[in-house]
């Protein structure tokens, strides 16, 4: 009976705390909703005329770069010379980079008769403005050297700034007109996002002579500003809509912030007090159990094991669990040790077999005797310099030993031919890569190193064989081994030439960076200390256990 009372006592304490916290937050939520309701009823609106004036100023601000572009280039003797010569290539040198620097999408230059001299754009053909000659001829007349209008551009509009071209000496721009310079910036999504950000609204463009339908809005909290966009003849060809949100009165913001601060402060005090008692009543014993689970130290359960509540039962179960874990751990350690020993023995047997195969291959081709030992050592050194893991070094080592095993399937007449191979013989020789893959595929243990025998003749620029792989498509270990393979081939003596010096080999491999070899591997090779001549070095197989 006593146990039942204690259990109920713990549950009651937790339930009481949960009830108090829930009640407090319910009252706080009601208070906050009431405050928000009062705030919503006291919204103040900025005047529509002020927002319209702001919109006009922002449009002028965004278009200022294009306007400056026109102002600078229409008052320039070099442009006059280019127009007179009708030399579009000369103009292109100066206009193309600057057109992008001034963030415009379209440039068109005419001579004084409005005949096209030069055109540049970065918009799609469907978005390039269509301008009638009769309309263009009305521009820059009656003493006004500049123009500003809008034209349709796809599903949006393009803002165009224009100006008549004069010599530098014509300060007033009232004398001879040598041409006309038009630039445009399309009102695409990027432009509308900028307009929306600067005006704190949602901007959109609607084509047509007048606004047909304004965007849908919440009339209690939003209003729409419509600004017409004039075309060549001064009449509106589109409308820009800005959906604007009203802002809150500063005094109400302050009052709301103060009320919110008081609620949060009071909540922190109450929650801190309740948390303290919760820790005292329940959490401290649970923390003891948790520490025991984390450290497997049974001493943490001392007083909790004697607790007659559910906490004591939990502590007893934890103790049983720890005993079972110890038993399982001992059993697993024994199994892991046995498996590890068997695996190591099997790997040693495989490695010995692979080394035997490599010696058999070298014995068959006396010209390259010792080649496998040397390239395996160089490949492992490169792998270590490149930070390969132990497992990848093992794969690289085994792949290096087996890289030419496919030559067992190449006829001796071709493999040991002293002279140059014919084209047909060379094609047969190239099959040693795919033959190697076919020979090793049935051996599960060697699956992860097949990529080296198969791909060590691939080249970084894609001109290698058997698959013509390029760049990162070539397996990483095959790219490392390719450098080691060529290094030994060049350093070793051949019947038709002497082996190269280390300096000559380094120069060649450096020159082939990005062509035959991965630049990253070449960089690692060049950082290695010079290697001794392979015929003079008494090398042993590098052991990668």
Distance between the termini: 67 Å
Q: What is the tally of beta strands?
A: 8
Q: What is the beta-strand fraction?
A: 5-15%
The helical percent reads 40-55%
The overall average pLDDT, rounded, is 77
Count the domains. 3
CATH architecture heading of the largest domain: 2-Layer Sandwich
Order of helices and strands: HHHHHEEHEEEHEEEHHHHHHHHHHHH
Please compute the radius of gyration using only Cα atoms: 41 Å
- Tell me the number of helical segments per DSSP (H or I, 4 or more residues long): 19
Shape: flat
CATH superfamily of the largest domain: LuxQ periplasmic domain, N-terminal subdomain
How would a crystallographer describe the biggest sheet? 5 strands, antiparallel
Structural class: alpha+beta
Query: Can you tell me the CATH topology of the largest domain?
Result: Beta-Lactamase
Question: Can you describe what's shown?
Answer:
With 545 residues, the protein is an alpha+beta fold. It has three domains: 1-44 and 251-345, no CATH class; 49-245, Beta-Lactamase; 365-527, Hypothetical protein af1432. Helix content is 54%, strand content 12%. The strands form two sheets. Strands 2-1-5-4-3 form a five-stranded antiparallel sheet. A three-stranded antiparallel sheet has the order 6-8-7, covered by helices on one side. The chain is flat and about 95 Å long. The relative contact order is 0.07.
């Amino acid at each position: 009976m006593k146990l039942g009372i204690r259990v109920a006592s713990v549950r009651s304490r937790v339930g009481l705390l949960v009830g108090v916290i829930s009640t407090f937050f319910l009252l706080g939520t009601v208070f906050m909703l009431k405050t928000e309701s009062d705030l919503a009823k006291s919204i103040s609106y900025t005047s529509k005329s002020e927002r319209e004036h702001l919109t006009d100023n922002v449009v002028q601000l965004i278009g200022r770069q294009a306007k400056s572009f026109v102002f600078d280039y229409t008052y320039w003797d070099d442009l006059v010379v280019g127009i007179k010569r009708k030399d579009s290539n000369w103009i292109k040198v100066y206009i193309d980079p600057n057109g992008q620097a001034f963030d415009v999408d379209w440039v068109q230059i005419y001579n004084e008769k409005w005949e096209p001299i030069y055109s540049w754009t970065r918009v799609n053909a469907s978005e390039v403005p269509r301008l009638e000659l009769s309309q263009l001829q009305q521009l820059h007349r009656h003493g006004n050297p500049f123009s500003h209008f809008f034209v349709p551009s796809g599903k949006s509009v393009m803002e165009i700034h224009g100006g008549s071209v004069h010599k530098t000496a014509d300060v007033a721009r009232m004398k001879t007109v040598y041409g006309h310079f038009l630039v445009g910036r399309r009102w695409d999504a990027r432009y509308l996002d900028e307009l929306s950000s600067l005006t704190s609204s949602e901007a959109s463009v609607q084509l047509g002579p007048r606004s047909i339908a304004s965007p849908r809005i919440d009339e209690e909290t939003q209003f729409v500003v419509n600004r017409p966009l004039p075309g060549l003849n001064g009449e509106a060809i589109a409308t820009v809509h800005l959906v604007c949100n009203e802002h809150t009165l500063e005094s109400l913001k302050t009052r709301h912030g103060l009320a919110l601060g008081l609620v949060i402060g009071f909540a922190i005090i109450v929650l801190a007090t309740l948390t303290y008692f919760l820790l005292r009543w329940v959490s401290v014993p649970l923390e003891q159990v948790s520490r025991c689970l984390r450290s497997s130290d049974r001493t943490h359960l001392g007083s909790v094991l004697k607790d007659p509540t559910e906490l004591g039962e939990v502590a007893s179960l934890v103790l049983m669990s720890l005993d079972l874990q110890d038993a399982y751990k001992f059993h697993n350690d024994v199994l892991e040790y046995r498996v590890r020993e068997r695996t190591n023995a099997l790997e040693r047997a495989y490695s010995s077999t692979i080394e035997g195969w490599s010696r058999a291959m070298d014995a068959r081709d006396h010209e390259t005797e010792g080649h496998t030992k040397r390239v395996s050592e160089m490949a492992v050194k490169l792998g270590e310099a490149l930070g390969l893991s132990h497992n990848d070094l093992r794969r690289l080592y085994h792949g290096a030993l087996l890289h030419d095993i496919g030559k067992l399937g190449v006829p001796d007449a071709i493999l040991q031919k002293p002279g140059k191979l014919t084209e047909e013989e060379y094609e047969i020789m190239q099959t040693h890569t795919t033959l190697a893959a076919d020979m090793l595929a049935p051996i599960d243990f060697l699956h992860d190193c097949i990529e080296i025998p198969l791909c060590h003749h691939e080249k970084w620029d894609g001109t290698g064989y058997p698959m013509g792989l390029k760049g990162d498509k070539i397996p990483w270990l095959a790219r490392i081994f390719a450098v080691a393979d060529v290094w030994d081939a060049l350093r070793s003596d051949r019947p038709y030439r002497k082996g190269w010096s280390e300096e000559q080999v380094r120069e060649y491999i450096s020159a082939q960076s990005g062509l035959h070899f991965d630049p990253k591997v070449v960089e690692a090779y060049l950082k290695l200390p010079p290697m001794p001549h392979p015929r003079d070095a008494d090398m042993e197989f590098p052991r990668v256990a």
